[in-house]
Write a structure and sequence with these properties.
Protein name: HTH cro/C1-type domain-containing protein
Strand order of the largest sheet: 1-7-6-5-2-3-4-8
Shape: globular
CATH architecture of the largest domain: 2-Layer Sandwich
Oligomer: single chain
CATH topology of the largest domain: Endonuclease, Chain A
Distance between the termini: 90 Å
CATH class of the largest domain: Alpha Beta
Largest sheet: 8 strands, mixed
Helix content: 25-40%
Number of strands: 8
Radius of gyration: 25 Å
Structural class: alpha+beta
Domain HTH cro/C1-type: 50-105
InterPro entries: Cro/C1-type_HTH (IPR001387), Lambda_DNA-bd_dom_sf (IPR010982)
GO molecular function, one term: DNA binding
CATH superfamily of the largest domain: Endonuclease Chain A
Length: 286
């Protein structure tokens, strides 16, 4: 036997866990994981912004794909995987058709070429309490809304905007997404908050018959948010300070803005926990 005919056994290399494995996971796969029938898949987050934008416009993935000139399954992949980006030219066309900024649908579409956004880029104005806010700002924002109106908490808007319920119902009839989150009166911690929650219910619950999405949050809403298209108005409660004197911040809602991301993440969390309210018609039948 010649030296060249001798083959040494190759030492097996330990199989390491995927880099996507959660912190604290075992660094080696078990023997069962090596079987061909065992396949581990990593679930990618879906593109909620694209999905909600299509829903607000009553646009199906198939119809939208037809306008873009792509396969319907391609649009479904974009929705199902937030990490999947279309070609930039297609992405800009999609954003133009949906009347949104391309970075709203795909924040990392430009990779590392985009400049970093600071909080000062988002800040439009700041007022020391609701009384200092220009009176025409509230009705102007809601009247000019084209894509969305989201109200979370109690800004006292019924006192600031004449015929607010009718305005919101008309916006919904025009296929503008209107969402309202109010505090559940049963979870209010004091008589004043209970009275405000009951007043909010009296104003907003009848709007469910007009297609407005109204939900109750089973807890205290320390932050109040009004999100209208690209305008974001927020008020964060301060301990020992009445809500009327808490500062109000007006932001330009930028997809990569640190302040916008903070408040919109809070809004998403509250939305997931809030309990949708049934329409008054359904409650009457029940």
């Amino acid at each position: 036997m010649t030296a060249t005919s001798i083959r040494r056994p190759v030492a097996s290399t330990p199989v390491r866990a995927s880099v996507d494995a959660p912190a604290g996971a075992c660094s080696h796969l078990s023997p069962a994981d090596l079987r061909p029938t065992t396949i581990r898949t990593v679930t990618s987050p879906c593109n909620e912004r694209l999905r909600e934008t299509l829903l607000s416009l009553n646009e199906s993935p198939a119809d939208f794909a037809g306008k873009l000139g792509v396969d319907p399954k391609t649009v479904e992949r974009w929705i199902g995987n937030a990490n999947r980006h279309p070609h930039p030219r297609t992405a800009y066309l999609a954003a133009r058709l949906l009347d949104v900024d391309v970075t709203y649908l795909w924040p990392s579409i430009h990779g590392n070429r985009t400049s970093k956004i600071s909080g000062s880029d988002e800040l439009t104005a700041c007022w020391p309490g609701r009384a200092a806010v220009p009176h025409d700002l509230w009705p102007r924002l809601l009247t000019e809304a084209q894509r969305r109106i989201t109200i979370m908490g109690d800004f006292g808007l019924p006192d600031l905007i004449p015929n607010l319920p009718r305005l919101l119902a008309d916006k919904t009839a025009r296929r503008i997404q209107v969402r309202i989150i109010i505090t559940d009166p049963h979870t209010a911690t004091n008589p004043i908050d209970t009275a405000r929650a009951l007043a909010a219910e009296a104003t907003y619950l009848p709007l469910t018959d007009h297609g407005v999405n109204v939900a109750r949050y089973p807890g205290n809403l320390a932050t109040t948010i009004l999100w209208v298209d690209d305008d974001l108005i927020v008020r964060t409660g301060i301990d020992g300070c009445p809500a009327a004197f808490a500062p109000i911040i007006h932001l330009r809602a930028l997809p990569n803005g640190p302040l916008s991301r903070l408040y919109l993440t809070s809004l998403d969390t509250i939305t997931e926990t809030a309990i949708p309210a049934a329409s008054t018609t359904l409650r009457a039948v029940a």
